Structure formats: structure tokens, C-alpha cells
Amino acid sequence: MRTVKLLCVLIIFSCVSLTASAQLLGAGAQMTEKGKFEFAINAHSRYLLNKGAVNFFLFGAVDYTSGSTKLSGLNIKPVSATLDFAGLVFGDHADKGLLWLSCDAGYLLNFSKKDTDGVVITPNIMCSYSLFYVKTGYDFNVMENNRQFFVRLGLILSL
To answer: Of 28, 75, 92, 130, which is the most exposed, with the fewest CB atoms less than 10 Å away?
Structure first.
């Protein structure tokens, strides 16, 4: 049964990513504050850009984290307000890196725990260079009052 759920999530994730014309695809491992490791995949699609010394984006995103924490599952994020400091930090190599300060808002569908679905706010920082990224943040489910700190390491592909 668990394999069927995982397969369904991967199919939904793929369809949403392709339909939304994802500009960033990532996969990696996530560690939560309770020392649990989870597999994480995500896709981001930018729909608003304001260029400047510090770029401002609005993204839509889909995240999936495996695991049994109260904040793992499919997180559909229609709003992710993002500031990109890559031009200031990486200079002439800004096209190879990202340094984002973001706040995401979305709805979590948790497949492993009952009654933990809800609206999740996630302030986070993500840094990537070339194909590798590190992301750290704090998930807060405002409906269920569940919280968790996380650190995610992985590979990212910019399309």
C-alpha cells in the first residue's frame, strides 16, 4: 500500500511539474530537528519577476517529503515570495548560483499521519552553486500548530 501511495505522489508531482513549466527541479535528503531523515523532491515555477540589485520573485512550488513526521507529505505552495541575493554574493558568477531568502505558503497533504493536513508557512534560506544546494527553514502548520526545523541537502537543476 505504501508503494502505491509513493507511486501516486510521484505521478502527481511529475504532472504538476510539467504542467507548471517548472524552472527548478531538486531532489535531496532532509533532516528534521528530531534527527529523522526524509527524501525530498521539489519543483519551482516563477510567475513574477522584478529585477534589480536584489531580484524579487513570486514562485509557485510543489514539495514532497517522505517520512513520518507531522509535516511530511505533499506540500502545494501557490505563493513563495523570494528575494535573490546571488548578484551581490556571487558577482560575475551569479548565473551559476542562488542565494534566496523566502517565505512559502501552501497546503500540506500528509499521507502518513491522520488529521495533520493544513496550511503551512515556511520561512527559509536556500543557497545553491552549480548542481548542489542547501536549504534550511522552519515549517509551521497554522491549523494544527505543528512546527519543525529542517535542513535539506541535494541536487538542483535549473531549466
So the answer is: 92
